[in-house]
Amino acid sequence: MISDQELMVLLDKIAGEYKGQSDDLISSFGMIILGRLYGWRVARLVTSSKDWTKATRLFGDPKLLMPERGKYAHKSLGLAIADKLGGYWNLIRSSGTIALEEKRKML
């Protein structure tokens, strides 16, 4: 994972070279910041596949910019569910197909 200072340099470079919708840039930058605090597992859970793909185009593999679990990862209900189920990637792949109420019952 790169340092905070290196991340700021990277964000500045990407912003300076970016051509496109500013909301795509904002969502990608926000995802990276959230991921640095909560971890890439939480960022992946709460980010749509479309937005994750946009961030991947801008940053390469976004996971390289974030810890797997950040200092606030324990606050994520989705991650707690994934941990309890033991199938993090299954939960990612089924996003939207498991009703929220069902996820709550699993806890």
Largest sheet: none
Mean pLDDT reading: 85
Instruction: Give the tally of β-strands.
Output: 0
What is the rounded distance between the termini?
Answer: 31 Å
The total tally of domains equals 2
The share of residues in helices is 55-70%
Amount of beta strand? under 5%
Poorly predicted runs: none
What is the radius of gyration? 15 Å
Q: Based on CA inertia axes, which overall geometry fits?
A: globular
Helix/strand-derived category reads: mainly alpha
N to C succession of SSEs: HHHHHHH
- Helix segment count? 7
Q: In words, what does this structure look like?
A:
The protein is 66% helix and 0% strand. The model has no long low-confidence stretch (mean pLDDT 85). It is built from seven helices and no strands. By secondary structure, the protein is an all-alpha fold. The chain starts with a helix and ends with a helix. The chain folds into two domains: 73 residues, no CATH class; 32 residues, no CATH class. Helix 2 packs across helix 3 and helix 2 packs across helix 4. The longest helix is centred in the first third of the chain and has 17 residues.
List the helices and strands and how they pair.
Elements: H1 4-17, H2 22-38, H3 40-46, H4 49-59, H5 77-85, H6 88-93, H7 100-106
Helix pairs in contact: 2-3, 2-4
